[in-house]
Design brief:
The chain has 547 residues and is of the alpha/beta class. Helix content is 44%, strand content 18%. The chain has four domains: 5-142, Resolvase, N-terminal catalytic domain (Rossmann fold), CATH 3.40.50.1390; 169-278, Putative Large Serine Recombinase, Chain B, Domain 2 (Hect, E3 ligase catalytic domain fold, Alpha-Beta Complex), CATH 3.90.1750; 298-326 and 337-452, no CATH class; 461-546, no CATH class.
Length: 547
Amino acid sequence: MMKKIRCAIYTRKSSEEGLEQDFNSLDAQREACASYIASQKHEGWVLHAKHYDDGGISGGHLERPALHRLLADVDDGAVDQIVVYKIDRLTRSLADFARLVDRLESAGASFVSVTQSFNTATSMGRLTLNVLLSFAQFEREVTAERIRDKIAASKQKGMWMGGNIPLGYDIAGRTLTINAIEAATVRTLFDLYEKHGTIRAVVVEAEQMGLRSKVRTSPSGKTTGGRLFDRGHVHYLLTNPVYAGKIRHKNQTHDGLHPAIIEPDRWQSVQDRLMAQASRGRQNQKNGSNISLLAGKLRDETGDRLTPSHTSKHGQRYRYYVSHRLIKHSGEAHQDGWRLPARPLEDRIAKAVLDHLEGKAVGDLLLEANADKIARLQKTIGSMTAGNETKSRLLSLIKEVRLEPGSASITLDAHKTGKALNVDPARINPETLQFSCPFQTRKRGVETRLILGKENQSVDPVLIRNIARAHHWYEAIKSGLSYEEIAKRDRVSKHRVMQTIHLAFLSPQIVKNILQGNQPTDLTTKKLLCNPLPSCWKAQDQQLKAL
């Protein structure tokens, strides 16, 4: 007697579009599968009575109610074979398909596609399925990439691409319109922060004023929101660029099509204040040693802000300025950015500002100046360096510092500079408020050394000691000792002696510069040992310039 093969039909559609029709895509799939099962009646195929339909659910995962019911029936032995219209109706993922096949095989069941002539009961059928699923997964991933690219391109044009509508706005197609009542709440929260300077104080007063979050109603009719603001909600609201008329996409912001509730300059001022507040540690606040004086003022070559950060080791606090993307994507590979020690950077930028004011700018700072005005200006600049607050006074004049490989562009704030120098900001020559200077970073072990302007490297005792040792070993060679004898005597390797002795042939001028600390910034023992110089002194100068 022929064995009956109980066949269950599974149908799926990714979107809900058209499911309300009397005869939809799921019905069409089921009809085609039922006809195919009827054509295989001579093989003992019979149609299972239950329906397994997943409408409006993606095939990129297995979290589907009808599929779970079907697999449970397979495990219970009620279904011998799953029939689908196309393989991608069951799954679009190779990994999920492998798990499904293992589960079917363990239950003694198989899988058949109506429009693709194969089944998983044969090795050739499984091979063909793997190939087709590879293309199905590829198609799904390409579609996802297209959607992501479309969202990115739309946001770049300033469009609103969905998500929770922020407080203060209503949706209007692909943009936002201002909700006057809610916008008043947003402005009040910004006013409170500018008044108090702390989020904690904003939360307290907002509660006293009865301010509430946005009320949202889901398609199912469920209502959420309308609650008092907490610290996290206030911080998110204050840092949301949508209120400045911007659209955020990952770590970039674009000009939005919607109107701003908060003026962009005012919004940016709040961001600077928030970052400056976050950079303050609880330790040593009285003497200000842990305050990041450049918070909110530093940008890198991509326009990304450098955010204050710190680490603690053995009770000592070490401050840094770090590109925001390194913090946001911490732990991810292939992330480039800046991580600069805070105190040396602040010291060198403060010195660069002072050098600029005392140098070229002092004569050209005022649009109309005579000798008396310049003399008074010089005296005022000199008084800025008196006392213990010199660095903070100089850095307070800065509006922005943009760091690029090889240079730093510094822009001074006209109003703050005028106030500090006792001159009318309108009388300041705007060309003198922006200047650039060379900027380099050098690694020495775990230390990052910063070189700003025409600053020379300090005396390198390690390099000087190795040059002296090279001359000592060279004299020993001339006296008749071998490399092996020198190495044994001084307890070093023969290779070290042969490598270091080249330093004995540096030109007198190069040695003089090294002794005075006037050598190139990156001229170290390691560099000289890895790049031996020629014996010709003129050629040495040429090679050093090329290194």
